[in-house]
Amino acid sequence: MAISGGDACHRRLAAATVIVTLTWTTGCSERTSAPPVSLMPPIADVPVGPVPGGVREDRSVLGNPVAGDPDALRDGRAFFVAYNCSGCHGDHGGGGMGPSLRDASWIYGGSAAEIANSVVQGRAHGMPAWGTRLTPEQVWQIVAYLGSMRTPREPDPPAGG
């Protein structure tokens, strides 16, 4: 019995579909090991302003686990530059398109937890949310660097002061 041109084409198409499907499903069943869980504490979800309806647990007291580590300060400075925070906040955080980070007064709160929350969640009018791009350790390192500004511990301080 002779196979017509249309039947042969359909059989080749069916065979190719089976091969592609088996290849795809086999590739999908391979599992890679999950990345190790960070030992850093999670970033607190700190309210930006007063919470209506009563008292809420104050989570802004969460401290930065790497605050005094000189390596963390240097790494935080490196991340500040690498992720172009300086593009909006100035090379040493003195301000530009974004607010100054060298001030003692902060729009959304200046505690370590509040600053970390601003980095992770972003803020209206231009501050992107970095929570999907940075690890908790990187966030805390940036927060440590920001906390070192205006102190003798600041790595690579601005010239003249």
Q: TL;DR?
A:
With 161 residues, this protein is an all-alpha fold.
Structure in words:
It is a single chain. The protein is elongated. α2 packs across α5. 40% of the residues lie in helices and 0% in strands. The chain has five helices and no strands.
Cα Rg: 26 Å
Fraction of residues in helix? 40-55%
Mean model confidence by pLDDT:
77
User: At the fourth CATH level, what is the homologous superfamily of one domain?
Assistant: Cytochrome c-like domain
Described by strand count, sense and barrel closure, the largest sheet is:
none
Number of DSSP strands?
Answer: 0
Helix and strand composition category? mainly alpha
CATH-defined topology of one domain: Cytochrome Bc1 Complex, Chain D, domain 2
Q: Give the SSE order as H and E letters.
A: HHHHH
Give the name of the CATH architecture of one domain. Orthogonal Bundle
| C-alpha geometry | elongated
**Low-pLDDT residue spans:** 22-37
| Number of continuous helical runs | 5
The CATH class of one domain is identified as Mainly Alpha
* Terminal residue distance: 92 Å
> What fraction of the residues are assigned to beta strands by DSSP?
under 5%
Write the layout of secondary structure elements.
Layout: H1 5-29, H2 70-82, H3 86-89, H4 112-121, H5 136-148
Helix pairs in contact: 2-5, 4-5
List keywords for this structure.
single chain; 161 residues; mainly alpha; Cytochrome Bc1 Complex, Chain D, domain 2; 5 helices; elongated
